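Model: You mentioned two targets. I'll fold them one after the other.
Researcher: Yes, keep them separate.
Model: Target one:
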Amino acid sequence: MTLDDDKMPASDAEGSGSDMPAPAALGQMLRQRRKAIGKTMKQVALEAGLTEGFISQIERGISTPSLISLYNVANALGTSVDTFLSQPPRHEHSMVSHAGERPGYNVATKDRVYELLERGFPGAMLNGCITQIPEGYVSELTSHEGEDFIYLIEGEILYEVDGKDYHLKAGDTLHFPSKLPHRARNIGKGPARELWVGTTRIIKED
């Protein structure tokens, strides 16, 4: 596995309701959308802040993007990230959310689970997500608008931000402008869990 890839073995992929593994199904959906609007992979990569090689790997089902990268790609394709999640997200507002009652979302693989935290009120600036990160996971290098605040709940993650490494263990935090190129590597034994809070509105409000 290279630092630019998020490759999952076929045995780890969930079924997508067809004979093809979920990463291939996601790649096909993205490729069909890109061709329908007449964009090249180079154009999508440039607008999404990713490499053309990584876009090619997604479309071929070799790699699966992180949620934020899928958000960037969806924006470049003129659509919503909701379309590509394992189930449609709830567009609700609640000042309180309870553990065990929040649904988990996947992007083409069952091992990386995103627990989206509902915004407390319409027009809220902050967005939150608790992510389960499998052992050995390495995200792609990405950037986007806004700012990110990360609290590592458990595990051990090496975050790279603008070419500098930050070694976080459970209880540590990281806060940086999201426009800086960044990625993460789970260097611990077993899965890690992080709380992300940011100003990027990944799931659009109705």
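Model: Target two:
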Amino acid sequence: MFYIALLFIIIGGFLFLFQRGFFNVTMYAFKKLGRSNKKIESLVEDEEKRDPKEILYRTYSFAWTYPIVITAIILGALSTILTFTVLI
């Protein structure tokens, strides 16, 4: 049960960080690095021009983030309580 809670915490934590825009700077840097190659840029003529601030400050919304995190916390607490109950 503890391993399931740990998996839920990892998945829920990643979703929470992603929806808050924690990885936006990294995605922006990789896109800028990909655009730095002039040969590829000359091949793609119909590339959209986006505002860099749009990419940096974009937020996402996932419906399952909070239920996964809450479930993980409940399972972790229940696992800890059961462990101490068995040991005592």
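Researcher: Noted. Anything on target two?
Model: Residues 35 and 41 are 6 Å apart (CA to CA).
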